[in-house]
Amino acid sequence: MLKNRFAGMANNMKKAVEKSDLQVSKKTKDNLIEIEILNIENPPFHDRYSVDTGSIKTLAEDISIHGLINPISVRRLEDGKYQRIAGYRRIEAHKLLGKTTIKAIIFETDSDIDVIELMFAENYHRENPSEYDVIVFHLEALSYMLEKEENELKSIISKARKIEQGSLKTDDHNLLSQIDLVKELLLKTKIFSSINSFYQRMTNTLALHSSLVEAMQSKQIYYSIAVELNKAQNSDKSESEINKFIILSIKENYSVSEAKVAVSIFMKASKSVDNLEQKKVDLKFKIKQLIKSIDNLNSAELDKLDKYLSSY
């Protein structure tokens, strides 16, 4: 399976959630039972990466007062146990309270793709995931369904993209069946409009600096900003300089355009800049940074700055 390396999606997520809510509402009361927590197994792939322990404690407090309002979702396995579809935080909250059983809706299905669709819709509706986690979920699900390691999976998706674009033709029935599974998952989750859009997100995500990954998971920055800041890795500077720049840039809370300018300045800092337009862009960026810091200046510093600006 894939290793643990890995904002315009909100509307598509809602569509997926609406379908899952409809599926749940069709279940009869016979499917709602109390089951032993020890008999619940996690999915066979990583369906989540970042977990807020504080939110689990808060949820546990709420459950202790009001009880469990929304049952978890599981599917029955052949050995009589259950596989979790949705409800990780609710299960952990029950454990925190010392409870040994939990209310669950049982889904009777052998279809992995249907379970993955429901898992994505329910989990990600409740958790409001980062765009990074959305990408990882799809990669992990595909890795599990196709039984492929990272490099093999990337190769399949790359070929699927070329076939979609018309630049590759093949009679390899095994490859075509694998690509059909990729298409089916993307169709089920309704997040990516095409294999090409998924491929672009995947390649950009896999190349992200580790600090940018952490920042995306903690919702400090969005995907588009992370991609811009990640371009700093293409500079000829040392790894420590790149790391420092990326960490400091995350704290600045840049917009996409500001991130582009910051990376441009960083990559050209050791070179002479002759381009007049680039000089203008760089100066505008520095002025913006100066404006941000004005609130922190003391009286003497403000007087000095005022005198300097008045000379122009």
How is this structure best described in words?
With 312 residues, the chain is of the alpha/beta class. The chain has 3 domains: 10-125, Conserved hypothetical protein from pyrococcus furiosus pfu- 392566-001, ParB domain, CATH 3.90.1530; 127-206, no CATH class; 210-310, no CATH class. Helices cover 61% and strands 8% of the residues. The chain has helices spanning 10-25, 53-66, 88-96, 112-127, 131-146, 150-165, 173-189, 195-206, 210-217, 223-230, 239-252, 256-268, 276-293, 299-310, and strands at 32-36, 40-41, 72-76, 82-86, 101-107. A 5-stranded mixed sheet has the order 1-5-3-4-2. A hairpin with a 5-residue loop joins strand 3 and strand 4 (82-86). Helix 4 (112-127) packs parallel to helix 7 and helix 9 runs antiparallel to helix 10 (223-230). Residues 1-29 have low confidence and may be disordered.
- At the fold tier of CATH, the topology name of the largest domain is Conserved hypothetical protein from pyrococcus furiosus pfu- 392566-001, ParB domain
Total domains: 3
Strand order of the largest sheet: 1-5-3-4-2
**Oligomeric state as shown:** single chain
What are the salient characteristics of this protein?
single chain, 312 residues, alpha/beta, Conserved hypothetical protein from pyrococcus furiosus pfu- 392566-001, ParB domain, 5-stranded mixed β-sheet, disordered N terminus
Topology, element by element:
Layout lengths: L9 H16 L6 E5 L3 E2 L11 H14 L5 E5 L5 E5 L1 H9 L4 E7 L4 H16 L3 H16 L3 H16 L7 H17 L5 H12 L3 H8 L5 H8 L8 H14 L3 H13 L7 H18 L5 H12 L2
Parallel strand pairs: 2-4, 3-5
Antiparallel strand pairs: 1-5, 3-4
Helix pairs in contact: 1-4, 2-3, 4-5, 4-7, 5-7, 5-8, 9-10, 10-12
